Amino acid sequence: MKTLLEILNLKRLSGILFYTSIISFIIAFNFSDNPPVSGWQQQFLPFMNNRPLSDITFVDSLTGFGITGDHTANVTNYVIKTTNGGDNWFVVDSIYQDLTKVNFINTNTGFVCGGLNQIGGYLTKTTDSGLNWNVLSTPFGGSFQDMFVLSEDTIWVTSPVGGGFGGLYRTINGGISWVRQDDRVVNKIYMLNGLVGFATLSDGSYLAKTTNGGFNWTIIPNEIGYFDIFFSDSLTGWKAFANMRKTTDGGLTWQEQTLPVTSTVSMKKFSNVNSDTIWGVGGYKFYSGHGTRGIIYKTTNGGAVWGYQLPDTSFNIPQFYYSDFINAKIGWSYNIYTGVHTVNGGDTVTIYTGISNNNVNISDVFSLYQNYPNPFNPVTTIEYEISSKGFINLSVYNIQGKKQTELVNKIQNTGNYKVNLNGSDLPTGVYFYTMFVNGNRIQTKKMMLLK
Predict the structure, then answer these.
(1) Could you tell me the domains of the chain?
(2) Which tens digit of pLDDT belongs to each residue from 301-326?
(3) Where does 314-439 show beta strands of DSSP type E?
(4) What distance in Å separates the CA atoms of residue 306 and residue 352, rounded to the nearest whole number?
(5) Sheet containing strand 278-287, strands side by side
């Protein structure tokens, strides 16, 4: 049993945390060059040896938990806690493991998973709100990438190693024993109840559904996996995988929902308050002279129409990766070192009502082509074409949406270009490469690295 290792109470940074009273909800086809202001409070995480945040969750308006993740062996990662809504954070546990997921089923009982492939999976539990942690027995295998906690006894964990000892595991006795339900590469797991659930297979290439608790899975045709997924009932659900998609027939078919047009239209994480109100993060808006600002999406009609906010902060947040709302007004959105908090839903909300904009469709004059070879090992070539001079950025992202490398980041003249990606330092899996021109996302394509 581990006791409280350290308490790092961070006092509020003078002049940094502040409130603004005005919220600007942007109409996607009519925005100015100056970043709008918003009713959000900026918050900062404690300095944890520069470890990035990898997940965050709140159990009420005051109590929340976060974890850090670092894939390097013999590196300390942290479990952190707040008891005042994120104004101050303190460390409640430190572990020589990569941490990937935190889940609390009530104020006192929570779980953290992770691990290292060379060591195995890691799962720990607290029943006293983080004061003490017990490491649970886990199936031998690779690290755990995702976890779904249905109850204190019933838990699923995924290991993306595949074959050997990876796959999907379930316990129904709180970790005393485990059953291996699938030996494929399983990245994400979500259970609507004890029987019905969804999983991402093969590094995001497939979406699968189970109706018997995870023992058998049916691949849903023509659907890829997800970064995040949620069902409000047995029929109605949403999933995010760059775009946003909704189902009304239990996941058999999915329809894309239109997100506001910004520099990067991307949804990575979202938080359902109910079947109507959903908050999400992942995209950003580029402002000339101001750089990029992270976007917080919102809908109040189940995704029929989406709007977005751009919080005005003293320390710029170029993109948000995590979001958690406990109701329609109170929520948090974070990147890896800082975030924002609202207690009024961003104040007065104006929902985005258009899907067109007045800009030239620059995808007509800039082209990004499929890499070759694909799949590749370890080198592949990416070609693109630009029809007018501009600032070009070509970046590669992993299945979690985290940037792995920048292949191009400079001004280029009109012409055809080729660039090579060397994946020697990257693990096997699905990757995405995205082309930006003057801060505007042109196109994203998928590629597979097989070693």
Answers:
(1) 41-342 (2.130.10.10), 362-449 (2.60.40.2550)
(2) 888 888 888 787 777 888 899 999 99
(3) 322-325, 331-334, 338-342, 366-368, 379-386, 390-397, 403-412, 415-422, 429-437
(4) 6
(5) 264-272, 278-287, 291-299, 307-309
